[in-house]
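From the thread on structure requests for the teaching lab: each student submitted one protein with a one-line request. Submission from student K.M.:

"Model Putative membrane protein from Sinomonas atrocyanea, tokens only."
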Amino acid sequence: MGNDASRDARAGTAPHPDFQLVQSSDEFRALRASHRSFVFPIAGAFLLWYFLYVLLADYAHDFMSIKLAGSITVGLVLGLAQFASTFAITAWYVHHANKRLDPAAEAIRNEIEQGGASSGAHAAGSEESTR
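Reply posted by the TA:
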């Protein structure tokens, strides 16, 4: 919030980046691939785990009501494990983002802010060098 004025001032003087050029760059593609290769499998696994819990709670009453210790049941332990796995996945993603995604995104942003992807001449030169 405090930086809005300075950001607006810089945005008014800086050339507009060619976002299609940025999106087609090898660096951006690698960043997107790294993000997707982490998020999609983890999200899929978590959804399977979640739906398994829901199905067990709905259709396996006898199993979920097995007492483990006192009034603690399998269903309660699995329900608490849902919360624990959510926090664990979040921590894992933060670690992955800090280690792999953020440095790559920072490099791409620095390239954009320095004008590396802002002019049509640069875009044409980039296309020529990749042919």
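TA comment: The beta strands are 67-69, 72-73. The longest strand covers residues 67-69.
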